[in-house]
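Hi R.,

Here's the input for the heme C complex you asked about:
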Amino acid sequence: MDPTTRLKNTATAVANNRGPIFFTLLTIFLTLLFLYLFYASPAASVGPAQPIPFSHRVHAGAKAIACEFCHPYAGRSNFPGMPPVEKCLYCHNHIIANHPEIKKEHNYFDTNTPTPWVKVNYVPEHVFFKHIRHIKKDIQCAECHGAVETMDRLPRNNFLMGFCVDCHRQKKANLGCWLGCHN
Ligand code: HEC
Ligand code: HEC
Ligand code: HEC
Ligand code: HEC
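And here is the predicted structure with heme C in place:
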C-alpha cells in the first residue's frame, strides 16, 4: 500500500467510526469531570481553595518565615491577624513579581480590597476563644493548628469542646472557664 492510500484508508476508518470515537471521548470527558467534581467537593480534606493559592509549606516551611511575621497579634491581642496585602508585596515587589498570582495581589492593593481569605478554623458560636493567654503560656501554634508549615492548603477544622477540655485538664488550667467560654 502506498502512503496516500494508507492515509485515505485511515481517513475513511475515522469517518466510519465517528460515532464510537465520539462516545469514547465523551466517556473520557465525563469520567474526568466526575473525578474533578468529586475531588473538588467541599467534603475533600484538602480545605477550601483560597483567592490566592498561598502555601504555608513554601513560606513558613521552606522559607522559614516566622508565623508572627504574618500573624503578629496572636500573642498580643484577641485576634491573631491576617497579613494585609502590603505585607505580601513587601517581598513580592521583588520576588517573582511577574507571577500571575502575585499580579492578583497588586490588583487587591490597587483597588484597596482586603484579600478575601476563606476562614478555615471554627469554634462553636457560643465559645469565646482568645489566643493571648495561650501564647503567653508558651503553648505552640502547632499544638492546636498542627504542622501548618508542611501544608499547602489549610484544611477546614471545627474545634470541639473535648479538644479544649482535654488540654485544660492536662495542664490544670481552669475548667470552670467554661463559664467564661460560654459568654
Ligand atoms: C518574607 C518574604 C515573603 C512574604 C512576606 C510573602 N512571600 Fe510569597 N514567596 C516568598 C518566596 C521566597 C517564594 C518562593 C519564590 C520562588 O519560588 O522562587 C514565595 C512564593 C509565593 C507564591 C508562588 C507560588 C508558590 O506557592 O510557590 C505565591 C502565590 C505567594 N508567594 C503568595 C504570597 C502571599 C499571598 C503573601 C502574603 C500573605 C506572601 N506570598 C508573602 C516570599 C514571601
Ligand atoms: C507569609 C505570611 C504567612 C506566614 C509566615 C504564616 N502564615 Fe498563616 N496565613 C497566612 C495567610 C495569607 C492565611 C490565609 C490563607 C490560608 O488560609 O492559607 C493564613 C492562614 C492561617 C491560618 C488559618 C486561619 C483561618 O482561616 O482560620 C492559621 C491557623 C495559620 N495561618 C497559622 C500559621 C502558623 C502556625 C504559621 C507558622 C508556622 C503561619 N501561619 C505562618 C499567611 C502566613
Ligand atoms: C490553644 C489553641 C491554639 C493555639 C496555641 C493557637 N491557636 Fe490559632 N486558633 C485557635 C482557635 C480555636 C481558632 C479559631 C478561633 C475563632 O474562630 O475565633 C484559631 C484561629 C487562628 C487564626 C484565624 C483567625 C481569624 O481571624 O480567623 C489564625 C491566623 C491563627 N489561629 C494563628 C495562630 C498562630 C500564628 C498561633 C501561634 C502563634 C496560634 N494560632 C496558636 C486555637 C489556637
Ligand atoms: C494545648 C492546651 C490548651 C488547649 C488545646 C486549649 N487551652 Fe485554653 N488554656 C490553656 C491554658 C494552659 C490556660 C491557662 C492560661 C493562664 O492561666 O493564663 C488556658 C486558658 C483558657 C481560658 C481562660 C483565659 C482567657 O483567655 O480568658 C479560656 C477562656 C480558654 N483557655 C479557652 C479555650 C478554648 C475555647 C479552647 C478550645 C478551642 C482551648 N482553650 C484550648 C491551655 C489550652
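One thing worth noting: Residues 3-37 form one domain.

Cheers,
M.
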